[in-house]
């Protein structure tokens, strides 16, 4: 046994989250793509079967009340809340991340203009996952704003009296860089603007602190580190003090104060329900609810500690196994700037990822030249990390 | 055996769709609420189990290609297309009905303005399911239009050079009135405006003829007569000739011409995919796909014929069993004005519906005073209809 595989064994033995792994369906593959689609929690299929056979098949329409379908968006929002540092009553689950980005950015612009009608700029992270930019551009267009795409580092410099809203990603999907949410949020507030954070690549991997840092609005998906299943519904956070000012561009009947009143006049619901739109997709939503049970008794701080240990150890193994200069990490070394992934740049990365997958190490390829490895602390162990780096070295030297 | 129960038996014997019923999970309840939530097709639970255990659990991320997840929105759209009279390539599945109404109305206004920038009115059915009005109002507000809520009968009279888009329901959710899609669409086109139809209460119950009548845009849910499951994803139809002009207010990454190019500039996809937004909710979507298999070999014309026979027979039984004047049908008698439901008004309808449900006849109550009975021709038989009317008469005379 090599020195590093011995170290991996010791780290796995000491890992307080090691026992959570047994709650997931895994095989002999090293699955480092949980930042794209989280693995299946083992109890979910049985729960889905009950939802389909009993709740839909036998109870049918009665399940809207009796099986808690109607209240699922807020109930599951409250289950996600502690993972992102939010008190209950501020998160609602439903729709896709893109749709929630739209709600959040339009609502943020409207909030800013309640105080100052001259605010007409939407600042967006130009380096981020493209949908945020596309949707922010649409939100800007529909509200008569100008879009200012900049890097997160440039944000403080462009904020001013014209800034209405700023949409940022907490962790960059490609590089894995963790942006400084507390200081950026403070800078945005100092400029009198509203901060919208996209938590897709941070929720479930590290503490977010939405309430603590006064984030105004936030969105995120649930199929990465939250393991909700393919395309499981996203969520929207609206800070409690702003809920009465949340003026949704998608005021569907589910967001009405009296949804079954069938009133022709729209009166928005109080609280998190104001972020709802249409009928929630119950099968996907309740599968997510079941999946979230793996978090029972798992502190997000322990997840963060293990995540950093995993990515540190991966970098250590890569440095030991891979010839120097063959790959270059584009993920920051500093812990305070790192999410839960390592992105390695190499010339032939598309081919390299194919070979890796063929050898049982699953990450993904992100254009133009990035090998992306996501480390889900709930089910990835240190032996996985050592094996991934070892196989990477082997496929890099064919 | 009474005369009407004998007639019911004869009608069931002669029913060419009678054999479809065996494909659904039903019990001894008379389920007349399929216009709210369709019953469970019996093969769906097994398919969902495969989607969860094998596609998600075992194949994980590979399923986006190998299990056809990525192409599901257009593939399932093409499965719905013949049911609403659309050729392939014009329907995409995803998001809720409300979200699709928003896409369609904003896009319709933008299309109208490509030809005439002075068009600034959105006409909407004031009597319809409220979400359409709320969302149309938001679309009007965001595009600088005025909302004109009118009854469908008033529509021709308010159309003019300022009309940009008209949003109408094909069948009224409360009364079951079927509106004249061909002539209303023609009137809207004559005024130079764009027609958006909401098919929630007609798709799967009667022929719609989207292509034949030149409808511009249409939306619908899939959990009523299409039996897709609770909150299953909705769909959006964009007429082929308009697809290049479809300018979505929700241009998420899934609607990009090159979704994995991760480009910062937005270039809309050609065809139906332009109506996509974010990551599709795969569990709900593939459950719907499985549910649609019950339509194999079922012509929508046969469904319509049986639907009218069912509602006719229900009215006949109600007239025979219920004391005159105790209930009043608000559903039109004329076939060309009737959807697939009968709405009966009576003074104490909330209580009456509770008693009916307690006696195994499930319809629903719609405020303020309507007993709503939906007849899904795929699984409701004539004996069900006779029993429902008989039990209704019994609970009305306590």
UniProtKB/TrEMBL annotation, chains A, B:
Pyridoxal 5'-phosphate binds at residues 97-98, 129-132, 198, 201, 223, 253, 279. GO terms for molecular function: kynureninase activity; pyridoxal phosphate binding. Its cofactor is pyridoxal 5'-phosphate. Homodimer. Its EC number is 3.7.1.3. Signal peptide: none annotated. Pathway: Amino-acid degradation; L-kynurenine degradation; L-alanine and anthranilate from L-kynurenine: step 1/1; Cofactor biosynthesis; NAD(+) biosynthesis; quinolinate from L-kynurenine: step 2/3. InterPro entries: Kynureninase, PyrdxlP-dep_Trfase, PyrdxlP-dep_Trfase_major, PyrdxlP-dep_Trfase_small. This is Kynureninase. It is an enzyme of class 3 (hydrolase). It catalyses: L-kynurenine + H2O = anthranilate + L-alanine + H(+); 3-hydroxy-L-kynurenine + H2O = 3-hydroxyanthranilate + L-alanine + H(+). Catalyzes the cleavage of L-kynurenine (L-Kyn) and L-3-hydroxykynurenine (L-3OHKyn) into anthranilic acid (AA) and 3-hydroxyanthranilic acid (3-OHAA), respectively. Keywords: Hydrolase, Pyridine nucleotide biosynthesis, Pyridoxal phosphate. The keyword ATP-binding does not apply. GO terms for cellular component: cytoplasm. The keyword Glycosyltransferase does not apply. Belongs to the kynureninase family. One of its GO terms (biological process) is L-kynurenine catabolic process. The modification N6-(pyridoxal phosphate)lysine is found at residue 224.
């Amino acid at each position: 046994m090599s020195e590093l595989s011995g170290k991996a064994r010791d780290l796995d033995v000491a890992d307080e989250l090691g026992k959570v792994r047994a709650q997931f369906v895994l095989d002999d593959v090293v699955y480092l793509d949980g930042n794209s689609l989280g693995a299946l929690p083992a109890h979910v299929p049985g729960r889905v079967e009950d939802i389909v056979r009993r709740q839909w098949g036998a109870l049918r329409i009665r399940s809207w009340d009796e099986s808690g379908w109607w209240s699922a968006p807020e109930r599951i929002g409250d289950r996600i809340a502690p993972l992102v540092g939010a008190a209950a009553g501020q998160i609602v689950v439903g729709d896709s991340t893109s749709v929630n980005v739209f709600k959040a950015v339009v609502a943020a612009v409207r909030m800013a203009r309640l105080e100052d009608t001259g605010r007409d700029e939407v600042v967006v992270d130009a380096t981020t996952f493209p949908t945020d930019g596309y949707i922010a551009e649409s939100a800007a267009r529909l509200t008569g704003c100008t879009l200012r795409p900049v890097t997160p580092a440039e944000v403080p410099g462009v904020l001013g009296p014209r800034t209405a809203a700023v949409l940022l990603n907490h962790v960059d999907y490609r590089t894995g860089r963790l942006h400084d949410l507390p200081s950026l949020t403070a800078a945005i507030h100092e400029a009198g603007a509203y901060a919208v954070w996209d938590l897709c690549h941070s929720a479930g991997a590290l503490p977010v602190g939405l309430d603590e840092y006064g984030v105004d609005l936030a969105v995120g998906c649930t199929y990465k580190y939250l393991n909700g299943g393919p395309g499981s519904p996203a969520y929207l956070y609206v800070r409690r003090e702003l809920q009465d000012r949340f003026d949704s561009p998608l005021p569907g009947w589910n967001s009405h104060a009296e949804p079954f009143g069938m009133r022709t006049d729209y009166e928005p619901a109080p609280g998190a329900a104001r972020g709802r739109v249409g009928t929630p997709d119950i099968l996907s939503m309740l599968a997510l609810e079941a999946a979230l049970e793996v978090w029972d008794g798992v502190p997000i701080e322990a997840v963060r500690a293990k995540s950093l240990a995993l990515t540190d150890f991966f970098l250590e193994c890569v440095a030991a196994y891979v010839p120097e200069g063959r790959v270059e990490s584009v993920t920051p070394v500093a812990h305070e700037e790192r999410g839960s992934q390592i992105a390695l740049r190499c010339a032939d990365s598309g081919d390299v990822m194919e070979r890796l997958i063929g050898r049982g190490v699953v990450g993904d390829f992100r254009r133009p030249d990035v090998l992306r490895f996501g480390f889900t602390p709930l089910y990835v162990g240190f032996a996985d990390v050592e094996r991934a780096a070892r196989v990477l070295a082997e496929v890099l030297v064919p």
